[in-house]
Amino acid sequence: LTRTIPVTFANLSKLEHLNIGQNHMHGNIPWELGSITTLQVSSFMTNKRTGHLPKDVGHFLHNLQVFFAAKNEFYGSIPESLGILQELKFLNLYDNKLTGTIPVAFANLSKLEHLNIGQNHIHGNIPSELVSITRLQFLSVEKNNLTGTLPDSLFNLSAVQPLSFMTNQLTGHLPKDVGHFLPNLQSLAMSDNNFDGPFPPSFSNATSLQTINAGHNKFSGPIPIELPLQQY
After folding, report:
1. I need a surface site. Which of 98, 117, 186, 208 has the fewest CB within 10 A?
2. Where is coiled-coil annotated (predicted)?
């Protein structure tokens, strides 16, 4: 499919699933789609969509559970109103041109399981409030322009399995007891930052951990021999 999304889709008042991913469609997401209040799944992945994400998206699509808009050319800030979507479980905005900061309002997404905002131009700190997303199983903020230290609370996301914040400008030490709080963590990617200090021996308690990528940082001291890894 080519061209743009027909505005007349807004007349489909009972539509629950809209998937137009992996086409050659371009242009903005029509704001009129916000009138489809029954929409649960919306995928625009891998197109040539441009423009801003609709800033009021969260005020209308109250039943939205899945929003995939990865691999497009969206720019501007991530809408704060996404934090209103109480049913949202999967949010993937990977590989766009988004700027601004990570919305603190994401902390309100109590059912969110998958959050991928990697490979954009997002700056600022990682909000400590993200710890409120207790069901989060996948978190990637990789390949952005994030700065500051990692909030200790980030490692209280006990359900998370892959965790990636590689290729940013993050600094500071890792919490010494980090391994005690991530029982389900399988993959940790934090390469290409400016982390320093020792590598916490407590990672030996993260018994599900299979892979750590910590290259191109400023870590010092010995590698804990107890790490239960398949790759590092």
Report:
1. 208
2. none
Low-confidence stretches of the chain (pLDDT beneath 50) = 1-2, 231-232
Name all contacts of 144-147 with Cβ < 8 Å and 24+ positions apart. Answer: 144/117, 144/118, 144/119, 144/120, 144/168, 145/121, 145/169, 146/102, 146/122, 146/170, 147/123, 147/171
Q: What residues form DSSP beta bridges with 76?
A: 98
Q: Does domain 1-124 bear CATH number 3.80.10.10? A: yes
Topology adopted by domain 149-232: 3.80.10
Which sequence spans correspond to the domains of the chain? 1-124, 149-232
Spatial separation of the C-alpha atoms in residues 85 and 92, rounded to whole Å:
14
Which strand ranges, in their side-by-side order, compose the sheet holding 2-3?
2-3, 24-27, 48-51, 73-77, 97-99
Dump pLDDT digits (tens) for 163-177: 999 999 999 999 888
